[in-house]
């Protein structure tokens, strides 16, 4: 197993992000608090890279994942409003299989968990590039439209995660 000695851009970004979270939680913007945040963040990144194999994160933009987190919060609220309408005016629960273009297994896992976090859908399985989802949809007698399910369940989420996929 190959060990890296230098810090990658993702590691530096992660250390600074953890330091910022440290400063926010400490509610103090002093020199010592910032230094302590950088030291604690650095230790966390070092220990994580040392004991947990995170080679899947090498081809992922952590900056884009942070942006994705805020985007996901908005999608959760939008999905909640749509789910309320479905519950009030009638709905069917259908199981659908959708394909993903994401190749990185870490980002596939993020997508599957995001689908579950958005109200009205629960991801049941991820196999290769196929996601099985239990989807709450408008009540009809017709079978579910896979293209519509694809767009509604993962469309915007997948596009944002594809931007975070490097290489």
Write out key terms for the chains shown:
alpha+beta
Beta strands, count? 3
Largest sheet descriptor: 3 strands, antiparallel
Rough outline: elongated
Helix segment tally: 5
Question: Considering DSSP H and I runs of 4 or more, what fraction of the residues is helical?
Answer: 55-70%
* Proportion of strand residues: 5-15%
Radius of gyration (Å): 20 Å
Describe the overall structure.
This protein is of the alpha+beta class and about 170 residues long. It folds into two domains: about 10-55, no CATH class; about 70-165, no CATH class. The protein has five helices and three strands. The chain has helices at about 10-25, 30-50, 60-90, 105-115, 145-165, and strands spanning about 90-100, 120-125, 130-140. A three-stranded antiparallel sheet has the order 1-3-2. A hairpin with a 2-residue loop joins β2 (about 120-125) and β3 (about 130-140). α1 (about 10-25) crosses α2 (about 30-50), α3 (about 60-90) packs antiparallel against α5 (about 145-165) and α4 crosses α5.
Note the topology.
Elements: H1 9-26, H2 31-51, H3 62-89, E1 91-99, H4 105-117, E2 121-127, E3 130-138, H5 146-164
Antiparallel strand pairs: 1-3, 2-3
Helix pairs in contact: 1-2, 3-5, 4-5
């Amino acid at each position: 197993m190959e060990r890296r000695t230098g810090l990658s851009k993702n590691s530096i970004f992660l250390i600074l992000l953890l330091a910022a979270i440290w400063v926010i939680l400490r509610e103090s913007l002093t020199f010592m608090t910032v230094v302590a945040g950088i030291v604690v963040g650095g230790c966390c990144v070092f220990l994580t890279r040392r004991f947990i194999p995170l080679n899947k994160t090498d081809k992922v933009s952590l900056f884009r994942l942070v942006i994705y987190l805020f985007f996901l919060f908005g999608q959760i609220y939008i999905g909640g409003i749509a789910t309320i309408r479905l519950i009030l005016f009638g709905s069917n629960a259908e199981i659908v299989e959708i394909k993903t273009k994401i190749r990185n297994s870490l980002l596939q896992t993020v997508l599957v968990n995001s689908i579950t976090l958005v109200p009205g859908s629960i991801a049941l399985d991820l196999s290769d590039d196929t996601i099985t989802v239990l989807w709450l949809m408008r009540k009809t007698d017709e079978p579910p439209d896979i293209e519509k399910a694809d767009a509604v369940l993962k469309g915007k989420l997948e596009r944002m995660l594809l931007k975070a996929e490097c290489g």
